[in-house]
């Protein structure tokens, strides 16, 4: 058994928590749909967020990535290339990319990994 005793004096510190894939994807979408520049502080870089940001770039959203990500939202989304949108997931169909593609209001193609292409698809 471990006994935890209270500190004898106040502890003052800052704790940095790791980014979240889910929150990063939501923030990317919100920033893309906003007018102007948004700063994502401490986003999680992962395979999924790379594909999400790539799809947004394909829709004309400019982005600078560093410790923080700067996203230039245009208030709208449109397909700028005509290429299929690639999505990746290992567990289930992508939660964010399919509804996001519907906002484009154009006929689009979605392709991706086996997990992405399972389950109900947009037709």
Automatic annotation (TrEMBL):
List each copy of the Enolpyruvate transferase domain by range.
8-76
Quote the Pfam families the UniProt record gives.
EPSP_synthase
Q: Which GO terms describe its molecular function?
A: 3-phosphoshikimate 1-carboxyvinyltransferase activity
Q: What InterPro entries has UniProt attached to this entry?
A: Enolpyruvate_Tfrase_dom
Q: Which GO terms describe its biological process?
A: chorismate biosynthetic process
Top-rank lineage group of the source organism = Bacteria
The name of this protein is: Enolpyruvate transferase domain-containing protein
State the species of origin: Desulfomarina profundi
């Amino acid at each position: 058994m471990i006994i935890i005793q209270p500190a004898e004096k106040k502890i003052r510190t800052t704790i940095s928590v790791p980014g979240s894939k889910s929150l990063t994807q939501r923030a990317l979408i919100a920033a893309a749909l906003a007018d102007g520049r948004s700063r994502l502080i401490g986003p999680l870089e992962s395979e999924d967020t790379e594909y999400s940001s790539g799809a947004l770039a394909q829709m004309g959203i400019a982005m600078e990535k560093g410790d923080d990500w700067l996203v230039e939202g245009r208030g709208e989304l449109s397909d700028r290339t005509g290429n299929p949108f690639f999505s990746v997931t290992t567990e289930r169909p992508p939660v964010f990319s399919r509804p996001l593609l519907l906002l484009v209001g154009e006929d689009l193609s979605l392709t991706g990994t086996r997990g992405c292409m399972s389950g109900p698809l947009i037709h």
